[in-house]
Amino acid sequence: MALRRISQYGLETEMLTIDSEGKLVEGGPAVIKAAKKSRIAKYVEKELSKAQVELLAKEKRSVKAVASAYLDNLHELVETAKKEGYHLLPLGTHPGRVVPKLERNDWYDSLRMVLEEDVFTEGRICGFHFHYTLPEGIVARDTQQIKTVRRSQAREIFLQQYNFLLAADPAILTFCQSSPFWMGYNWGKDCRVLLYRDMRVDRGPKSLHGMHYHIPIFGALPSYEFTLEDIRVMADTRKTEWLRLLEKKRFPTNKIAGIPALKFMWGPIRVNRIGTFEYRGPDMNRPQIVFMASRLLVYMLKAIEKMELSVLPSDIGADEPFILEDDTIYVPPHSTLKYLEKQSVVSGFDSQSVRKYCSSLFSLMEKVSKKRRVKRLTPLKKMIEDRKSVSDEILAMVKKNGYKLDEEVPEDMLNHVALYYADKLPEDIEAAKSYVQD
Questions:
Q1: Distance, CA of 55 to CA of 44 (rounded, Å)
Q2: pLDDT digit string (tens) for 78-101?
Q3: Fold observed for domain 9-432
Q4: What is the three-state SS of 151-211?
Q5: Measured at the alpha carbon of residue 44, what is the angle toward residues 139 and 106, in degrees to the nearest 5?
Q6: Where are the domains of the chain?
Q7: pTM for the full predicted model
Q8: What are phi and psi of 351, to 5 degrees?
C-alpha cells in the first residue's frame, strides 16, 4: 500500500552575468543588490563567484506550479539585470577565458583552501539543482541528520528513489548538456560536468581534469545504497575527511565543524538536511529543458512510490537498462554507470550507448505514466531522435562560422555564443510558460 503523503518539487538555478558584448563580467553583486529591493528578494542569492546569480524556486506539489512562479521571477530577474547593464547566461559555463573573482565567507574560504586554484573553476560553471521531498522520517528535523530507521515503508521508498536518481544521471546529463567549450577549447559535450566531478579527458598532449579528480569522495557519482546506515556513515566520513584536509592546511575549523554532515556531499546527489533529495547533476539550460528534465524525474519518482517499484542494479540492467519486469526496474551496475557518465560528457548523443540509455529511460517513463504526461515530454524524444542537445547546437553554430572544433576558438566567437543564448532568454521564458501550461 502506497504512502499517503504530499510530495513536492523545488528548484535552484545558477546563471552567469555577461556584458553587451557577451563577455563574462562580475555583475553578480550589482544584480543581486538590485533584486533584493524587489518582489523577488527572497528567491535571489549569491553564489561562489561575483559573476554568478542564483534563483530559487520554492517547493510546490507540481512542476507546473513551481514553473509558473519561477518563470515570473526569472523574467523579473532578467529585467533587473538589464537595468543594471547585464545579461543573464543560462548555460553550463561561459565558453570564453575570463576568470571572475570569488565571494568570501567561511564556507567559500574553506573550499578555496582545499581546492586551491581549482575553486576558480566552480566560480564560472552553472547547474540546476532538482529538489524532491523525502518520505517522512528519513532526516531528523532537530539534528538535520539521517535517522536510524529499521523497518518502514518510507525507508524502502527512499532507497528505491535514491538509486533511481543515480541510475538516471547519465541520461539527464545528456538531455541538459550545454557546455561544450572550456577556455576556448571543445573538450566534449559537457565541460561543466567534466570540470566538476572526478573525471579526466585527454586531447593529444593536453588534458583536463575535474575539481574532485583527486578527492572523489566529495564530488564523484556515488555508489548505489541499500541501507540508511551506509548513507549516514558516508556523510560522517566526508565531514571528517574535509575537516582533516582543512586542519592539514592550518585552516580554522571551529565554524565548519558545526555544519551538519549532510552538507559535505556536493556531488551529483545529496540527501539534503532540509528533507529533500537534491539532484545536482545537470547543466543549467533553457527553462523549457530544465522543466522537461524535472518532469521526467518527478513522474518517475512518483511512479516508484505509488506503484511500489524496486530499483535493482544488475547484469540485466547493463544489457537492458530501465527494463521493467513485474515490479522491478533493472538498472546498470555502478561500473556501467561510470562508463555512461564519461560517454555522456565526452560524446553525448553521438555515443550509441548513451543514446540507447536515454531512449530506455524515456521508454520506461512511457510505461508508467499517463498519456498526457508522456505527450508533455515529446521534445525529449525528438532530442534523442535528432541526436541534438544545446551543446550540439553550440558546436554547429561555431562550425557554421568557419571555425574548426579541434582547434582553439577566438574569444569574440565565444562571446558571440554567450550573447546569443542570453539574448534568447526572454523568448525562452515565454516559450516555457506556454509549455508548462499544458
A1: 5
A2: 999 999 999 999 999 999 999 999
A3: Creatine Kinase; Chain A, domain 2 (3.30.590)
A4: CCHHHHHHHHHHHHHHHHHHHHHHHHCCECEECCEECCCEHHHHHHCCCEEEECCEEEECC
A5: 65
A6: 9-432
A7: 0.96
A8: -85, 125
